[in-house]
Amino acid sequence: MSNSLTLQVRQSGATGYKGNLQLSEDVTGTELKKQLSMLTTIPLTEIKVVIAGKILKNELSLKQQGIKDNSKVLVLKGAPTEEKIKLIEQDKNQSELQRTVKAAEKLAKRLDGGEKVDEDYFFELTNQDGTKFELPTADRTALVMGMTLH
What we know:
The protein is of the alpha+beta class and 150 residues long. Strand 1 and strand 2 form a beta hairpin. The protein has three helices and five strands. A five-stranded mixed sheet has the order 2-1-5-3-4. The N and C termini lie far apart (62 Å). The chain is 35% helix and 19% strand. The model has no long low-confidence stretch (mean pLDDT 82).
C-alpha cells in the first residue's frame, strides 16, 4: 500500500508559486513534473525540480528516489530541451515556407506585364531569341510555382 506525501513546493523567483502538494509516493518524477508544470505555468519541457538537494529523476518513483514526507521542492525554469528547440525551429521553417509560397502564388498570378506599381512580383517567359513565350494560365501557374519553390 502506498503512502501519501506532502511536499513543500516553492518556485524560484519573487512571484513564483509557493504551497503544499499532496500525492502518492508511487508517483514518478515525470508525473510530479506534470503537476508542478500546471501549478507554476512553467512548460513541461523546461521544468527542473530539485528535492532534498537532488535533481528529480523522471523514470523513478518518489519512493525509489528516497523522497520523504514534508520534503522541500524547488521548481526551476531551465533551458528548453532539444525537442522543444527542434519544434521552435520547425515552426520558424514552416512560416518561412508559407511566406515563400505566398510570394510564388502572387508571382504566378501576375499576367499584366509588370506594369502595376502596387504589385511586387512579375514573371515573364521568353525563348532564347528574347521573344515572349505564352503558356496557358494553368501551365504558367504550375511552372512558376515549381520554379519558385524548387
